[in-house]
Write a structure and sequence with these properties.
Elements: H1 2-22, E1 27-29, E2 32-34, H2 38-48, H3 50-70, H4 74-82, H5 84-110, H6 114-141, H7 145-154, H8 159-197
Antiparallel strand pairs: 1-2
Helix pairs in contact: 1-2, 1-3, 2-3, 2-5, 2-6, 2-8, 3-4, 3-5, 4-5, 5-6, 6-8
Length: 198
């Protein structure tokens, strides 16, 4: 039991470090900016439970908020200048909840079918991150000049259209790439963790 807890703590720390690093290294191709931070969160939540998913989601959220504070994210910095507290709520609790729910979903679906559980949870992680982030962004900031200017540029007639157009193709690519990486990584990490416990 002690060995398992130590292993869980060590792997969680490694995943947290990976999240901190890759959050500052988005992939930029063909005008797209893709973050893979939800991949280690999904893997951690799937392999070690919702508590690890919550912890890793907290790390991602904290790093995301830090990027707003230091100006690494111009969009986040603009939100921060409007309302720091609401920016914190957009960045941190959303990622915490996405990580936590990924673990909950995996555990629930695993009772029915383990292979389906890997697929469902791996897909749910980036999807929930996007839905929760955009949902709170619209709830807190939609009526601000910043978001209204974006909405006009995108020709978005309502909040729902704004979310679809704002996320757009970039969000779909991020969802697909994250999903395709999380499934095999989760299976591999689970197998490695089980072999270490023997």
């Amino acid at each position: 039991m002690v060995k398992q807890k130590t292993q869980k703590l060590a792997i969680s720390a490694i995943f947290a470090a990976i999240i901190a690093v890759i959050s500052f290294l988005p992939l930029k191709t063909a005008g797209l900016e893709i973050t893979l931070s939800m991949v280690p969160i999904a893997v951690g939540a799937i392999c070690f439970g919702s508590s690890v998913g919550l912890l890793l989601g907290t790390v991602f959220g904290a790093v995301s908020f830090l990027q707003c504070v230091i100006g690494f994210s111009p969009f986040g910095a603009a939100l921060l200048s409007i309302n720091p507290w609401l920016t914190f709520l957009v960045c941190v609790p959303t990622r915490m909840l996405a990580g936590f729910l990924c673990g909950v979903i995996f555990k629930a679906v695993r009772r029915l079918n383990e292979k389906v559980a890997y697929v469902t949870a791996s897909l749910a992680a980036p999807l929930m991150n996007t839905v929760l982030f955009m949902g709170t962004l619209v709830a807190f900031f939609y009526n601000t000049k910043l978001i209204q200017d974006f909405a006009k540029t995108l020709n978005a007639a309502n909040p729902f259209m704004f979310i679809l157009l704002f996320v757009g193709f970039n969000g779909l690519v991020e969802l697909l790439v994250g999903f395709l990486l999380a499934v095999p990584c989760s299976i591999a990490v689970n197998k490695a963790a089980k072999s270490l416990q023997k």
